[in-house]
């Protein structure tokens, strides 16, 4: 039976990463490692304070599972043993990786999927002044930009960025930073400046207004959706869902969530936390069917783990087996 070990790693961010909730200068990740018969599988997660998670709590949850894993807990049983969240994601992805290495078959093949292809990923611009974000947009030179908004001056930011990069595709992430009072004006501004999608404009516990107003831009649920629980109730509020493995609790649930989301008529976005290529690798399999891909975490770091995902401009390439899967 596999033996489970857990470690915490820290990766400096290139500069500072700022969203409506605050700033950070490093990515802190938790890695679950499974070893059996001379082979090892790994999965990476990012505990997120917004969901009541801590690094220490995630490590403890995983360490508490070590005996169960050595006694035979497998990926299927894991889904009912641990709630959706970062800890389950790391272990679920480690199970997938170990399974692929044990059988000598890529995860995509084991899932019956075609080999993954390179995908265009969004590139995220931190929340800043209009002038600073416009400079960053111009310097990025990317075809698809994700703008962190959610504060006073968002319309000025949009105007400055659009003037700086008139040809770029834009998506916006408000990180729950707008209010019912500002919602319609800011959605209208997004439409005016050619924004294609808005992530989570209102707080997850105060988003009912989205069902009552005209939505001129595709509205995507992020904090409002984690796994399949309650997904159907979001149909009148959102047009798309952002699937993140850390929220869903791993690739296993994320694949099921994508399937149910499509059946309910949602467009799919696949996103990430601020993490390394080990976290992006399984998400790239899921992203093959998404309309919007946002897997730029390693591009925002001062250094990535090696080997890592290959990025060529805006293209993110599928992982090699020595990284994951």
From TrEMBL:
Domain Mandelate racemase/muconate lactonizing enzyme C-terminal: 130-220
Source domain of life: Bacteria
Known cofactor(s): Mg(2+)
Pfam families in UniProt: MR_MLE_C, MR_MLE_N
Protein name: Dipeptide epimerase
Sample GO molecular function, one term: metal ion binding
Annotated family: Belongs to the mandelate racemase/muconate lactonizing enzyme family.
């Amino acid at each position: 039976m596999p033996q489970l070990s857990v470690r915490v790693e820290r990766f400096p961010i290139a500069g500072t990463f700022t969203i409506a909730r605050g700033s950070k200068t490093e990515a802190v990740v938790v890695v679950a490692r499974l070893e059996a018969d001379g082979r090892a599988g790994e999965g990476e997660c990012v505990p997120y304070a917004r969901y009541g998670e801590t690094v220490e709590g995630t490590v403890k949850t995983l360490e508490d599972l070590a005996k169960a894993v050595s006694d035979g807990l497998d990926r299927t049983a894991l889904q009912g043993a641990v709630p959706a969240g970062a800890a389950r994601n790391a272990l679920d992805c480690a199970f997938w990786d170990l399974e692929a290495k044990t059988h000598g078959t890529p995860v995509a093949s084991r899932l019956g999927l075609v080999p993954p292809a390179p995908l265009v990923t969004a590139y995220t611009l931190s929340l800043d002044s209009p002038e600073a974000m416009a400079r960053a947009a111009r310097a990025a030179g990317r075809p698809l930009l994700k703008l962190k908004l959610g504060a006073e001056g968002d319309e000025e930011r949009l105007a400055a960025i659009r003037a700086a990069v008139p040809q770029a595709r834009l998506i916006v992430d408000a990180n729950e930073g707008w209010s019912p009072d500002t919602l319609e004006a800011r959605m209208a501004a997004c439409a005016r400046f050619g924004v294609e999608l808005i992530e989570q404009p209102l707080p997850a516990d105060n988003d009912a207004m989205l069902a009552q107003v005209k939505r001129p831009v595709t509205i995507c649920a992020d904090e409002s959706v984690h796994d399949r629980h309650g997904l159907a109730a979001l149909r009148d509020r959102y047009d798309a869902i952002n699937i993140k493995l850390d929220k869903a609790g791993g690739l296993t649930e994320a694949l099921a969530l994508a399937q149910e989301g499509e059946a309910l008529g949602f467009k799919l976005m696949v996103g990430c936390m601020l993490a390394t290529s080990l976290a992006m690798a399984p998400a790239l399999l899921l992203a093959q069917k998404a309309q919007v891909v946002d897997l730029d975490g390693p591009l925002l770091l001062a250094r990535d783990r090696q080997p890592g995902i290959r990025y060529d401009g805006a293209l993110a390439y599928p992982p090699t087996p020595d990284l994951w899967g």
